[in-house]
């Protein structure tokens, strides 16, 4: 990613954040806790649980900084393709080792941006029970701090108007945790180091989710 591309992508993500703010606060009632924990500058990885398709847009509209999400390529269809690209989102082919997506994601961090990742890889229970290795790889490779994020309430019940979405004007909680580094301080990037980092990440993310549920009563 060239300097021009990075600047355009960052501007696009800023536009995406403004759109997200308007939509999320206009259609639902987000309650945001701990947003001050996100470092105001420098590279950051937001590790988000994923129980509903609304979780990504909700984070884009509530995070204190513009976010570049790694999003499955299947979402980039029709008019959504240029739109998602235009707001700085990154397409990833989950069926292969997508080197292009890896390069783009690392470039976001190298430019001091915010990378959003669903570490479970796909939508599920949203409990961080099964982490893939991608989060550990990006965290060790970039050295960027990881901020755990719990989105709660998006999958509680279907809406009356659009059953695929939460009820309009319902409350969705977004809880940011303390930033931490995934590595052990040795700088190692071996397979063993990745496996150990994945275990550490899972423990920290699961702990944050438990605390977020306690705080919100979810």
TrEMBL record:
GO molecular function: acyltransferase activity
Signal peptide extent: none
SMART domains: PlsC (SM00563)
Domain Phospholipid/glycerol acyltransferase: from-to ranges: 44-154
CDD domains found in the cross-reference section: LPLAT_AGPAT-like
Keywords, sorted A to Z: Acyltransferase, Transferase
Identification of the protein by name: 1-acyl-sn-glycerol-3-phosphate acyltransferase
